[in-house]
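A note from the maintainers: we've had questions about how concatenated examples are separated. There is no special marker in the raw files; a new sequence line simply starts the next protein. For clarity in this README we add a label.
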Amino acid sequence: MELDFKSSDVGAWKEALSSYDSRIESLNKPDLVSLDQFYRVKLPSLLHDRDPNPYLTTSELSQLMKWKLSRGKWRPRLLDFVSSLDDSAVKSASEKAFKSLPDISQAVKELTVLKGVGPATASAVLAAYAPDIAPFMSDEAMEVALGNSKDYSLKRYLLFVTKLQDKAKELKLKGEWDGASDIERALWSVTLRSKSKSKPEKGSSEKKRKRQESQNSLGKEDK
């Protein structure tokens, strides 16, 4: 199923969102299913149990980072950075960030003082606490909503937030819809499906690549 970002068909958006769990499973990545449950269910509950002064621990940030990297591109250095952060620093920065909401710009700035935490990771932290207003800055959703996913600046994230918040408000007027994070998950799901459909038959590309490497290697040896 294709989904145009401009579409106001609530049914189409709900169908895309409903495929999220199966898309997560289809990636066949170690622990991703359990990490996704932690991120979407357990972590929000833990954070709100700490209201009115919610905060994040280093251990929780590390798990969140594992989820982010498993669902997207794996960058082990980022995981190393956040896992070694001082717990008091993470608690302080996250508490300030959550208190800054709904000022998303300020909330991101409070979190990005931590080593290894850029706007994308900060967005994941904020989305865990306030999914209705702060969507995760995924490459897939950025590509659909903004046309590219290479700019991870705060300015770009704020534009992304506005786009997804506006779309969520539009869908709410037409039917039942929760918020900006559901827009992100719907976009991620349809993008993942499109990518999987465009992939060549399993095994064929790998054989072709190895054959080409073999030919290139023979060519180099001849020179």
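[label: protein 2]
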Amino acid sequence: MLGIVTAGIAPGLALLSYFYLKDQYGSEPFSIVFKTFISGALLVFPIMFIQYVLDKENVMQGLFYEPFITMGLLEEFFKWFILFYTIYQHVSFDEPYDGIVYGASVSLGFATVENIFYLFANGLEYAVGRALLPVSSHALFGVIMGYYLGKGKFSLESKWKWLWLSLVVPVMLHGSYNYILITLEDWLNLMIPFMIFLWYVGLKKVKKARLMSTKHFEDNLLFEKPFISGK
């Protein structure tokens, strides 16, 4: 049991640590990141219940609805909802890169609990595959969501466009991941290039968010200098 729990938690914590330590302008308060992680973990239970009801009632089932709506949209919307209503206006969200940290945190909280449940049901031999595919993909969906939330918060214009993209882009990527996994017999042949693409996009967003944070702090420093110097 301990081995399964450890294997279920380890990849999520490793990925969260990676994105957390990439924050170059002061790490986010651990307590806020932890609460966001736990919020994502708790999301598993209502989402599993809703998905169970939809499946039993045969609602929104099919080649499109299941991967994109009952899985992709449902899961990403709840993550987005938590980020927008608990983190977006929080005082700790004070630079664009913070969106990456909080987006990864809520997604990896969800992925970690989901991963533990899967390993209990199917066995420890799936731990490596789960770490490389579902856990990593959830992390990257969260990174991309957080990137657009950060861009929306600190942009002077088109805020609602970025907020809209912060939901739509992860939903489409998540749906595409599920579609490959559920509908294709030779899914691995397409999943490998898809994951390479997802990592490329995610790491590119990380780099862009770091550059936006650098500009954000430089602009703030220039604004504060006249007041500091007494001019």
